[in-house]
Amino acid sequence: MSNKVIFQVENHIARITLNRPNALNALDNDMIADLIDYLIESKKNDEIRVVIIEGNGKAFCAGDDLVDMGTENNPNPTDKLTEYSDGYPAVVLTMKSLEKPIIIKAQKYALGAGFEIALAADFIIASTDTKFGLPFVLRGISAGTYLLQKRIGYHRAVRYLFLGEMFGTEEAFNWGLLYKQVELEALDQEVEKLAGHLSMSATRAIGLMKKAMHTSESMAIEEAFQVQTYSTLASFYTEDYAEGKQAFIDKRESNFKGK
Description:
Elements: E1 5-10, E2 13-18, H1 29-44, E3 50-55, H2 80-85, H3 88-97, E4 102-106, E5 109-111, H4 113-120, E6 123-127, E7 131-133, H5 147-152, H6 154-162, E8 166-168, H7 169-174, E9 180-182, H8 184-199, H9 203-216, H10 221-236, H11 239-250
Parallel strand pairs: 2-3, 3-4, 4-6, 5-7, 6-9
Antiparallel strand pairs: 1-2, 7-8
Helix pairs in contact: 1-3, 3-4, 9-10
């Protein structure tokens, strides 16, 4: 592991911090490898019930570091298809397979690969000064073709993909991309509030819902409801279901364990 990404766990919350503030936390190969490793560790650790991904310094993430992508420990593969597959798309796919809620804390810039990672999360809380964008075209690169279109529609997405424009939190919130937009000084508090709430929730049921939603998003309704039914069945056998049912009978708050 490098010191370019910091991993901490406290009170059932994993915090993954991008730590290249002088480069606006632009991603190199070391950081991509560390992000994937820490997400996998979060998946395996039953004590972790929610994950926060944030950036140290004034920006969340300015995208891929095109100058410094190849590092001594993680050089670029000679095969370009492997290089592009194993880049930030591998982070996105690992995030989508993590059956725990993921929160992005965004400030100043969430661009390129940084914005794609944000779009792959379950919640984005952003400071009102944040700019979002997928300016790949400005470097002659074709990328960013799935998530943004899926979230905001084709004709709106092509403006930002084909022209490389950025947009702010007002647009992002109105399009349903953000959970909240807050002033910068309130950002930490809002992220901690949401993470704390989720860490005490029925996170096993949340994980099953997340998996079912991603699995069924392109299915016909009959298949989608079959996935939902199996998800419901799996939740029936969790400790949290038994606790939630007993708490309802006892007329008290549930004490969920995420199991």
